[in-house]
Amino acid sequence: MKTIIFWISICSILTTTNNIYAQVKNAKTETFHVNGNCDMCKATIEKAGNKKKEAQVTWDASSQSASIVYDAEKTNSDAILKRIALAGYDNEKYLAPDETYTQLHGCCKYERTLKGKEIVAVSSHQTHEKEHQHHSKDEKKVESHTFQTVMVTYFSLKDALVSSDSKVATSQAKSLLQAIESLKMETLSTNAHQIWMDQVKEITALTNNIVNSSNIADQRKHFAALSTKLYPMVKASPLASPVYYQNCPMFENGKGANWLSLNEEIKNPFYGSKMMTCGSVKEKIN
Amino acid sequence: MLLKKVNITLLLLLCLLGTVQAQRTVTYHLYLQDTVVTYGGIQKRAIAANGQIPLPTLTFTEGDTAEIIVHNQLKESSSLHWHGVWLPNKEDGVPFLTQMPIPPGSTYTYRFPVIQNGTYWYHSHSGLQEQVGMYGSMVFNKRKDDSTFRKGIDDIPTVSVMLSEWTNTKPEVVQRMLHTGNDWPGIKKNTVQSYVEAIKEGHFKTKVTNEWKRMEAMDVSDVYYESFLINGQQSSQLAQFKAGDRVRLRIANGGASSYFWLTYAGGKITVVANDGNDVQPVEVDRLIIGVSETYDIIVTIPAENTSYELSATAEDRSGAASLFIGEGIRQLNTPLPRLRYFEGMKMMNDMMKMNGDMHDMGMQMSLQKMDMNAVMYPEVTGEQHNMKSSFEQNGHQEHDNHGNSTDRVTLNYAMLKATEKTTLDTTNAPMRELRFELTGNMNRYVWSMDNRVMSETDKIPVKKGEILRITLYNNSMMRHPMHLHGFDFRLINGQGDYAPMKNVMDIMPMETNIIEFEANREGDWFFHCHILYHMMAGMNRVFEVGNYKNPLLPDKEKAYKVLQKESNMTHFMIQNDFATNGNDGEAMLQNARWSLGTEWRLGYNDMHGYEVETHLGRYIGKMQWFIPFIGFDWRYRKMGKDNHEKNMFGQVNKKDNRTAVSLGFMYTLPLLINFQAEVYHDGITRLSLMRDDIPISRRLRGGFMVNTDQEYMVDLRYILHKNLGIRTHYDSDMGFGVGLAINY
């Protein structure tokens, strides 16, 4: 093994032309284990490690190693290996951030043999909780012709706005229209019935507006108005689980707007990922 | 350590005089000395104690008497403040407020009983010494028999972590550069936000609106730091820990002006205490630690033969320090990407009114819950270009990833809950409500409360035992870590009786927060913004509780005057362009309100002429857009190049030889154009419009001037260095010129 590495470094020094020495002063050469798969990896690893007049990296797939020539007065092997790890490639000294590794191209997803054995599970219960949530959401969808159905579709519309997806929002608004039309009044309490009769025209019109809006900004404006209209209905006709009436104070230059959500945690439909967690709970409706 | 010149025979001397069992005195000797460090790549002067930066960690147990003997071997006076510690006022360590400065060459003893437990720190409260190394950790351990002792928290391995930053520029120069609007730090950090950059990113309109509202480029911090440090190192490892270990880190932010994001590569961070006070454990993915705050966190090492990176990334993302926890190969964190400044600028434009006020959101915005800066975080908003391309490559994986980034839990103040009830007994104590508006002026770097700097206010008298309920509203463009000496306050955060106790409260722009505390310790207690340069610009108040006789300060009145003066220093600025057609320059002496300035244009011959204009003025209003002044002009010239003497009003203005006194004012118009009107003693009137420092590109600045004397000037300046630029200009008096512009 040692001899192979020796020959590789010799070869690499010879092949990568003499100008390395012209470029890198006080040259020191070292070889390190660096994981990777293909030519694409080679390009990324070398690009990450190289620095003009400072460091020259040559990576070899078969030996899974990189030979590094660097100016010992300007830098050290640690700094170079750190850059390579930050580009997604585990090596003798550093492990790449998990997020960076996941973002590597499919063919570059090398086996992460350098990672230590995990003995503490990292937050597995969390994913569990999420599955549970999804489950309960699905259950709600089964019922139909009730106000619950209207709200379930509303929440899907809200989620589409949270992820700033105008197309999905349009299609969800369409389903909301259907849900509004097919709502059976007899399922409502007297009080809720009265409110529904008063508001249904506007609720339908606003939902229509969302369907017909071509851009997300307009959809959000109508959604703000729609949410205010639905709020008294939710108060009068409580759902199976608590609903949170939430507020974004910044919408439309500080005028603010409200929305309804099943989760206490804020996910802002008016700004989406730009201001995801911006907002506050105004009221919890049980 | 990179410290040199450490020739101290007496290092850390710890003597236990434990004669009585419960009452023991723990003594530390601190030898303050000048030292040389290379944190920024070159040798610079710093201050160390016992040869160390950070200063040694001082450990006590609740019930001890702390005795710290300071040997000032510096060439300047010094002091030490015990941050967050309850103690007699004379031990608080604020020169000219609670003691006289410790003169060079002398020894001074601080002595106080330790009556609390938790993570604290100490630092110099003299001038800008805190920036050059004078900060250290301080730990007050709980007694084993303490009823609040928490298993799995108070009995696990603990490491003190001190965060700080280093600049190669002398802090006095940093301060002056902030006041004179030198944009070299912005160039170094690549945060100039020039017009060319705006156009490239499709934000031309944003930039114009921003300048229309009279704002200069916004940044989340003001100072350029060469490096960021954890326990005095950019990167270090705690190799004594192994897989499965839980480690408690007692983190203090000793940075002079940097907020730090804390992230951990080995999973969740559990927050267990804040500002020395226990909180109910809360799991987060990341947290921001404000200047001078302390947080106790617990992290776990999940895998064998691996050390996990704890990163402290400066809020402006200009750099980070790493601490690897564990043995073996180093698992890196995902670095926090560069800020999207123009998104932040856009948000700022929406939030600021034309008169420079922020939209007041009342209590809707408080407790760090809405981080407006989040619009600038690519890891939150998604990196548009990268997202798209990798989405095409491998659809679902990217999707999962996206989910992760938005579900990230960030700590905010509303999540802090005390472990015990913290309600104040109001039955027989009088309650008093106070309100402060935090105000500031970025362009001139004046920071104040209720638009008053400290030198314009008296101490606030408070009766001993009174309960103060203080509402703070941040009507400025920057966040401020407000620190109260001598007390912990309750931060009203929706946790009811379990509101957390703190001694520093970070308050973001537009936020309103409420704090309350019982003023039960006599003395003069400082209440100030802990960003060193904001404090030195006057963002301070003093609560004078009871009628405290301080034996160390026989003349309190006089001492307070000195303190006031120190927080409103006069800054000197001078610049000159040595050009082919003459010298063009100005000099200015300024403090928070007053400005004495002289401008000159000195040609090389009589034809080009010589001209000097001097103005003495006072800035009016919070935004300081208006400055009335009295002026004195002198000029001499042989008629030549530009020989009309009539101005636009038909008044004849002798240019050949003129000495005049004037009254006038300058007002900053939208787009940061200065409008100046002046009437001379002989009735001649002159109106001018001018603008300096238009950020065209990262290093290129433009400017112009026109006036009713039908004079005009346009110039371009290319910035080479913090004190040097190349300038070319065309002047109606002196014609075309190229030169070297030097500024100090």
UniProtKB/TrEMBL annotation, chain A:
SUPFAM superfamilies in UniProt: HMA, heavy metal-associated domain
Gene3D superfamilies noted in UniProt: 3.30.70.100
Keywords: Signal
InterPro entries from the UniProt entry: DUF3347, HMA_dom, HMA_dom_sf
Pfam families: DUF3347
Domain of life: Bacteria
Residue ranges of every copy of the HMA domain listed in the record: 27-92
Signal peptide coordinates: 1-22
Full protein name: DUF3347 domain-containing protein
Organism the protein comes from: Sphingobacterium faecale
Source species taxonomy: Bacteria, Pseudomonadati, Bacteroidota, Sphingobacteriia, Sphingobacteriales
TrEMBL record, chain B:
Keyword check for Nucleotide-binding: no
InterPro entries attached to this UniProt entry: Cu-oxidase-like_N, Cu-oxidase_2nd, Cu-oxidase_C, Cu-oxidase_fam, Cu_oxidase_CS, Cu_oxidase_Cu_BS, Cupredoxin, CuRO_2_CopA
SUPFAM superfamilies: Cupredoxins
Keywords on record: Copper, Metal-binding, Oxidoreductase, Signal
Name of this chain's protein: Multicopper oxidase domain-containing protein
N-terminal signal peptide: 1-22
Lineage: superkingdom: Bacteria
Ranges for domain Plastocyanin-like: 38-144, 160-314, 432-546
Pfam families: Cu-oxidase, Cu-oxidase_2, Cu-oxidase_3
